[in-house]
Design goal:
Low-confidence stretches of chain A: none
Strand order of the largest sheet of chain A: 5-6-8-7
Largest interface: A-B, 18 and 13 residues
CATH topology of the largest domain in chain B: Ribosomal Protein S8, Chain: A, domain 1
Low-confidence stretches of chain B: none
CATH architecture of the largest domain in chain B: 2-Layer Sandwich
Oligomer: heterodimer
CATH architecture of one domain in chain A: 2-Layer Sandwich
Strand content of chain B: 25-35%
CATH class of the largest domain in chain B: Alpha Beta
Shape of chain B: globular
Strand content of chain A: 5-15%
Order of helices and strands of chain A: HHHHEHHEHHHHEEEEEHEHHH
Distance between the termini of chain B: 23 Å
Structural class of chain A: alpha+beta
Number of domains of chain B: 2
Helix content of chain B: 25-40%
Number of helices of chain A: 14
Order of helices and strands of chain B: HEHEEEEEEHEEHE
Number of helices of chain B: 4
Mean pLDDT of chain B: 92
CATH topology of one domain in chain A: Ribosomal Protein S5, domain 2
């Protein structure tokens, strides 16, 4: 409180001041200081009219070509192109141009050019499916209601009823009360089929497969003569046919050069760690990898090689392979489609592959568990829900 | 209810299965006996017999000590011998692997973990619930101490019981 304040100020405060905002705040007894009214904001405000997306251009600014300009253009363009230009001119309204063909300059503009009128799968968010047709209060019609329906049919139809009329009536006869869509197009908990019958994600389409088969036959007849020694020994060792070997999906996961230091000097060699699999439960040559429902693994498993510790976790159908690239390639080769993995501690490539292999092979078969414990174990998903959960 | 002793039992069972023992013994207590009975009901161990410091004689046909052995009989527990009693467990192996995989405590002596039916339902379905991870592998089970004895998690869900989570067996 300022007692030193001159008395005239008290009278001044009653009269109107020349400036609307006083520098000295009036609430002097208040414990917290009031903000100064004429204080400048830290950051300049962005005012909307300055930033409006509306362009200064008007519809009148877009004028069609004059005869003179057209004559100039005709020198450059052919007659067909001129026609196209004319059609384009006619099809676009200058009003639309003034409203839509503007570059935004506001801070929230997009930093790229794109056509936002189109929904691109994979980039844009999915368009939601319409709400279901389900009607939870539907009831089966009683006998009396059916009799009523029949009565109405006979009453409304002409005297000579043809068999076709009966068929039409039977087809259009509804069996339930409630929403019509509920009966005609009921909700299904089943995941809609992505592929046609006999078609999988790995296999090429039927036409492609046919052409590939034709191509393959030609190649095979050529290659039949040139069986390499390595291939021959592999066929002998594994007992596979040549075709089975050729269908193996292989991928080199780790490759680097290694050096052996001898008294003769450094002997360089290449190290390769590759994975092979037929994409259908075979990981490595002759090693069957257990799979649950031919898509994921039995339970969560862990593997440890060196300092690499990893966990592989089973996942529901359609989850995909959300793993790092090495484990992804191994799962592709083995034909596992739904899996999550976590690699802890070290992430050495070679040891990661080995640990993942160890983990995949350490799966416990529920049948074996059941026999070991002398208990009955039932796959609830398969037995009770027919794979629908 | 000493969880310290229970933790010792769990690690002892792990060590015994790794050493491929067919018969092992643990200190006698009511908690241990109930847990071992639950393990036996779930098929993880073959037999539970309360005996003295030396292993009880094997059943003539089964080959391991059995609690219902009529020939040998079981020495009754008296005030004199109760301190020397131990629980003798027959361990099981199948296809060169022990049936009792790894036994791990969930509650610790310093942190007791309880769970209700709702949480247990999630756990049995394979989801995590609080401090208790889901049962996500085939043949994995969780043992709880409830007011109707020591039960497996799925039994608890069936009977709508919650309780103290003791240990997890894989």
């Amino acid at each position: 409180m300022s007692l030193a304040r001159p008395a005239r100020c008290l009278f001044c405060s009653l009269s109107r001041t020349a400036t609307p905002g006083t520098r000295v705040p009036r609430r002097q007894f208040h414990p917290t200081p009031a903000p100064l009214t004429n204080r400048k904001p830290k950051f300049p405000n962005v005012k909307s009219p300055e930033n409006s997306t509306r362009s200064a251009l008007k519809a009148d600014d877009f004028k069609s070509y004059t005869e003179e300009e057209k004559a100039h253009l005709a020198k450059e363009y052919s007659a067909a192109q001129m026609e196209a230009i004319k059609a384009g001119e006619a099809s676009i309204d200058p009003k639309d141009l003034s409203e839509q063909s503007i570059r935004r300059t506001d801070p929230y503009r997009f930093k790229y050019l794109d056509d936002f009128s189109v929904i691109e799968p994979g980039i844009d968010r999915n368009v939601r499916a319409p709400e279901s047709n389900s009607d939870y209060n539907f009831k089966l019609k009683s006998e009396d209601q059916f009799i009523e329906d029949f009565g109405r049919f006979f009453a409304e139809s002409n005297e000579d009823i043809k068999p076709a009329d009966f068929v039409r009536f039977a087809e259009s006869l509804r069996l339930t009360e409630g929403k019509e869509e509920n009966e005609l197009n009921p909700h299904s908990a089943l995941v809609p089929d992505l592929f046609g019958p006999g078609q999988t994600i790995d296999e090429p389409r039927v036409e492609e497969r046919k052409s590939a088969a034709e191509k393959g036959e030609k190649e095979r007849s050529l290659e039949a003569e040139e069986l390499t020694d390595a291939l021959k020994s592999l066929l002998l060792a594994t007992g596979y046919t040549e075709r089975q070997v050729r269908e193996l999906r292989t991928k080199t996961l780790v490759s680097h050069s290694v050096v052996n230091q001898t008294r003769l000097g450094k002997v360089r060699r290449a190290y390769r760690l590759s994975v092979a699999g037929n994409g259908n439960g075979l990981l490595g040559i002759g090693e069957a990898c257990p799979r649950y429902e031919n898509r994921t693994i039995f339970g969560d498993v862990t593997g440890k090689v060196g300092a690499v510790e990893l966990q592989l976790m089973h996942r529901p159908p359609g989850f995909g392979l959300r793993t790092q690239h090495l484990i992804y390639e191994m799962c592709r080769a083995a034909g596992i489609h739904d899996l999550a993995a976590r690699v802890n501690r070290s992430r050495n490539k070679m040891n990661t592959v080995k640990a993942a292999y160890e983990a995949l092979m350490s799966q416990r078969d529920p049948e074996e568990v059941a026999r070991a414990r002398g208990k009955k174990i039932v796959d609830v998903r398969k037995v009770y829900y027919a794979g629908k959960v | 209810m000493s969880l310290v002793n229970l933790a010792h039992v769990c690690s002892h069972l792990n060590n015994a299965t790794k050493a491929r023992l067919s018969l092992t013994s643990i200190p006698n207590s009511n908690l241990h006996l109930k847990l071992c009975n639950a393990l036996q009901n779930s098929g993880y161990i073959s037999s539970v017999v309360r005996g003295g410091p030396t292993p009880p004689p094997a059943h003539p046909i089964l080959g391991y000590p059995a609690a219902n052995d009529e020939v040998e009989g079981i020495e009754p527990v008296t005030l004199d011998n109760v301190a020397s009693r131990r629980l003798w467990l027959g361990l099981k192996y199948w296809r060169n692997e022990s049936v009792l995989g790894k036994v791990r405590m969930v509650s610790k002596p310093t942190r007791r973990v309880t769970i209700d039916v709702e949480g247990l339902r999630r756990v049995v379905r394979g989801e995590d619930s609080g401090y208790v991870g889901g049962l996500r592998s085939p043949g994995e089970s969780l043992f709880l101490s409830t007011d109707r004895g020591i039960l497996e998690a799925r039994e608890c869900v069936e009977k709508k019981l919650g309780g103290l989570v003791l240990c997890r067996v894989l």
